[in-house]
Design brief:
Bound molecules: adenosine-5'-diphosphate
Number of strands: 14
Helix content: 25-40%
Largest sheet: 8 strands, mixed
Shape: globular
Structural class: alpha/beta
Number of helices: 15
CATH topology of the largest domain: Nucleotidyltransferase, domain 5
Number of domains: 2
Distance between the termini: 16 Å
CATH class of the largest domain: Alpha Beta
Order of helices and strands: EEEEEHEEHHEHHHEEEHHHHHEHHHEEH
Amino acid sequence: MARNVLVLNCGSSSIKYQLVDADTGECAASGIAERIGEKVGSVTHLRDGKTYTYQGRIEDHAAGLDIIRRLFEDSRLELTDAGVVAVGHRVVHGGRRFTDPTVLDDATVAAIDELSVLAPLHNPANVTGIRQARKVFPDVPHVAVFDTAFFRDLPEAAATYAIDREVARKYEVRRYGFHGTSHAYVSGKVAELLDRTDLRQIVLHLGNGASASAVRAGKPVETSMGMTPLEGLVMGSRSGDIDPGVLFHLNRQAGMSVADLDTLLNRRSGMTGLAGVNDFRDLHRLIDEGNTDAALAFDVYCHRVRKYIGAYLAVLGGLDVLTFTAGVGENDALTRAAILRDLEGLGIRLDPARNAAASREPRTISTDGSAVRVMVVPTNEELAIARATVAVI
Ligand code: ADP
């Protein structure tokens, strides 16, 4: 009997889902509910190469889950008969308390809700999704898998901000790291493919959100996201690293409030802020049309990633494998080439033909003689969540 896990990733206005066989990794169905709470929402459900859709108002997450359940039925897959053994929830912030996948009950859900002070943009939506999903699917265990978990053992030197230690302690201000499920999955896959446990790795998760990690022998030693998923690389609509003095300046000179600054850095920055688009396919089109804002945005983006590669090379004291993953990392050969341009001095030599070849499989894109192996490994957070879920039920 298949051990299917319904994996849910609830955002503030969306639910991404996949029904995954935790043993084979096979995905029986997947989809996304979008624009929940807006006038018109939609659900797109994929099963056996066919697309099933819903258009119309989706009141809240509970309504979204109900529509998803109906689309499962329309696609001849009754969730109740599909051998669903558990629901696995992606939860962004586990704070210091949750470092392992956790079977959910009322008390743990309440504790995750309390962590919303650390992740006000993410945890509330995760908790809403969990609460509704427990009502819609009451007969199976629900498990939370935390984005921060992989980075729980980040060395103190990497996890500590250099601010007043009492303030930091009282308000739990430290670097937690995010995208951990992806960094763990991808670095683990690389170790498995190369059959080596001692590797020094850099993983570049370049999607709409973006983060880098340095991993030594399977343990993370650095990562670019910090107390929140705002620090580090330039992202779709987030600034990444910025001098905190900019915030004081904009507060004093432009009268921007905390809420204004939050919106500026989280939603009106990154590629959206610099070029007006967050999707790299649009960005390349604009660059081809001669748009200088887009060209600068691309340069800023690649420059930031290169800075992190150099820093992590020093942190690791050398490098065996550098891996690209997520939407941009897996698909965008131009961006990979620009990031790794002229790094032969660091032992990084990209093979142009291997880099340009499109594939859905893990692959090496460096030359045979490159001292550092460069790979592309598609991430699979849903499978990682499904496996973590069945491991604790
Ligand atoms: P998230 O999970 O953070 O929403 P993804 O990892 O799915 O993000 O990445 C989405 C991004 O990947 C898109 O915004 C786009 O910039 C980029 N992307 C996806 N496909 C391609 C492609 N074929 N070429 C270039 N960029 C792509």
